[in-house]
Amino acid sequence: MAIKVKKEAYDKKLCRLLDEYNKILVVSADNVGSNQLQQIRSGLRGHSEILMGKNTMMKRSIKLHAESTGNSEFANLIPLLVGNVGLIFTKGDVKEVRDVVAKYKVGAPARVGLVAPIDVIVPAMNTSLDPSNTSFFQALNIPTKINKGTVEIVTPVHIVHKGEKVGSSEAALLSKLGIRPFSYGLIVASVYESGSVFSPKVLDLTDEDLMAKFAEGLSNIAALSLSISFPTLAVAPHMLINGYKNVLAVALATEYSFSLAEKVKEYLKDPSKFAAAAAVVPAASVTSAAAGKVEEAAKPQEPEEESDDDLVFGLFD
């Protein structure tokens, strides 16, 4: 009876959190102790709540709540509940919550049989161990020398690779050296926000990154549209300019003319005007940036033509 009451209370709490919060962080809780978890709760108090529990209970409560409320978006959480995971409900900035959680990590030794979450490299150092331990280092292919009666590691050595199990020799060595290479804490595995699920890597994207990605995509669309002659909004300026170049070429090769072509023909008739226009550039470069801005505001700018390509594009100014 007591178990049933606890399950009902847990279900009620989970449903309340789902209705109250629209941002949820799914976190991996491997090797996280109760004291460490309590510290994380204290750090998040005021804007976030942590809920741990059995995956089957969480999946069942979420499924029933989605059916009862008609909000099928909650069902997107169910596939994420795999392994030793918990939920952090928050109303604050998701990135800030992740950064707060990342602060509460504790060091841990390399235990035998543990899968290494990171690469472990022993640095070059004086171990303070007596020469009787030399054979131990030789068994691990670690170059050493005797310095002032102690064993000194000559060069850094990569002894454990990420994803591999820690062996007994490696664990013993790291213990002798007093190295605790691993740290454990809650790790954000996925982020749920208003029905959408995305990787926590998205939180590290800046406005500059988004603009760069957008510009790259726009460039690809423009290149594809030009190659297949398919008009799109991205390629419209390029198609207009290319069309203008073709019309201008026809006007220059024949007696046909139009207003924008007259200026080009005038320069071609009197090439000395190119030199006059080019002479303006060195003189302008002598002035300072501030003086140049003032001068531009005070009087109209003169056209600067240096080549045929620059001339064609400049006609739109």
Pick out its properties.
single chain, Ribosomal_uL10-like_insert, ribosomal protein, Molybdopterin biosynthesis moea protein, domain 2, Alpha-Beta Plaits, Ribosomal_protein_uL10, flat, 317 residues, 60S acidic ribosomal protein P0, alpha+beta, 13 helices, five-stranded antiparallel β-sheet, large ribosomal subunit rRNA binding
Architecture blueprint of SSEs:
Layout: H1 2-20, E1 23-28, H2 34-44, E2 48-51, H3 55-69, E3 85-90, H4 94-103, E4 106-108, E5 120-122, E6 125-126, H5 134-139, E7 144-147, E8 150-153, E9 157-160, H6 168-177, E10 182-184, E11 187-193, E12 196-198, H7 207-228, H8 236-253, H9 259-269, H10 272-278, H11 280-286, H12 289-298, H13 308-314
Antiparallel strand pairs: 1-3, 1-11, 2-3, 4-10, 5-9, 6-8, 7-8, 11-12
Helix pairs in contact: 1-3
